[in-house]
Amino acid sequence: MLTLSGTSIYLRALEPEDLEFVHAIENDETIWPISNTQTPYSRYLIREYLKNARQDIYEAKQLRLAICKQRSFQPVGLVDLFDFDPKNNRAGIGILIKDEGERNQGIGGETLELLIRYSFTQLGLHQLYANIDTQNSASLKLFTKFGFVEIGVKKQWNLIGGKYRDEALFQLINNHNKK
């Protein structure tokens, strides 16, 4: 079985053809509170980003992959490893399924399962973490289903819709990797 391929989805590197998809996500203001974005991105900036996406995770300190359904090249979402820290063998993880109609269909779960396996087996990471708005019940349910444990709450952390909201920090430790 391939590390980044599952039953119904696979994860692939970003391609220049993903420009419009990434542009739509980065400029969707409904997603900005989740991604801590405050300004739109031009097609030019995203094109330059995609040109530089060839850097590996050790150079860029992040890895962004397209989530695609099997037998389709078109992405339905993005998954990120960010704040990659090879010294301490950890990274943050974030998942976004673009269209609401594609959510709650098992795509996020399969994506998370694939990326956990990849992070622990291929990258040799000791831990993954996720920052989740305490009101995001779907993400809370998804990450806890895969063994992520809440290790703290950042009170009134993000200003969303004129109100401060708490953000929980979740962690998954790879107990099979004793370094």
Automatic annotation (TrEMBL):
<dbReference type="Pfam" id="PF13302">
    <property type="entry name" value="Acetyltransf_3"/>
</dbReference>
<keyword id="KW-0808">Transferase</keyword>
<dbReference type="InterPro" id="IPR000182">
    <property type="entry name" value="GNAT_dom"/>
</dbReference>
<protein>
    <submittedName>
        <fullName>Diamine N-acetyltransferase</fullName>
    </submittedName>
</protein>
<dbReference type="GO" id="GO:0016747">
    <property type="term" value="F:acyltransferase activity, transferring groups other than amino-acyl groups"/>
</dbReference>
<feature type="domain" description="N-acetyltransferase">
    <location>
        <begin position="9"/>
        <end position="171"/>
    </location>
</feature>
<dbReference type="InterPro" id="IPR016181">
    <property type="entry name" value="Acyl_CoA_acyltransferase"/>
</dbReference>
